[in-house]
Amino acid sequence: MKRTLFITGTDTGVGKTVLTALLAEFLREQGIRVAALKPICSGRQDDARILRRALGGNLSLDEINPWHFRMPVAPVIAARQERRVVTLAPVLAHIRAVLKRFDVMLVEGAGGLLSPLGKDFDSRGLISALRATPVIVAPNRLGVVNHILLTLEALPNNLRTEARIVLMTPPKPDLSTGSNARLLAQLSVRNIYRLPWFGAKFSPSITMQEQLVRKALAEIAGVAP
Fold this sequence. Notes:
- There is one protein chain.
- The protein has 11 helices and 10 strands.
- The chain is of the alpha/beta class.
- The protein has one domain: P-loop containing nucleotide triphosphate hydrolases (Rossmann fold).
- It has a 6-stranded parallel β-sheet, with helices on both faces. The protein has a two-stranded parallel sheet with strand order 3-4.
- Helix 1 (16-29) packs parallel to helix 2 (46-54).
- It is globular.
- 43% of the residues are buried.
């Protein structure tokens, strides 16, 4: 049965691409036909290139990232600068067309859940239309509890209960890093996972040698480790 995981976050730069690449390489290692897309982005295409490497090159850069804009600002603004408009229907059509060739689809959003991606839609709209499982990535530092609760509150009820929460350890943990997951659990947040700091030079293949990382990836993806 085909499945779609949508990797969103509480903000930009929180580790969405790192997690998407890890999931892609892990699932591919399990023999699962997996695709990873970042349909819309602005600025450099470094994230899309990371995903392409994690997939072993089985998708082209244009398939992974068909809507790309030069200016490093919100995609909807960057598109306007180029006199272009991105609408929801073709984005959904592209994702669904690629999914036909794979068993699992990973879709990475741009920015946070409600950051505008195109004309009148954001990551929440894509998640709902795709009936995808939301994966919310957040930096495990002071303030993250509020950011996660707000992001969950913005999801429809049926998607909120299915959401996975991934706390990414920052390079310099603070006093809250060790207690945020426990506090979220006390506030009835479910499916919480913690991942360590992977270093400035991130390598999915090296990172996946850690058994705790593999276990977390398997549970996030919903497969046997």
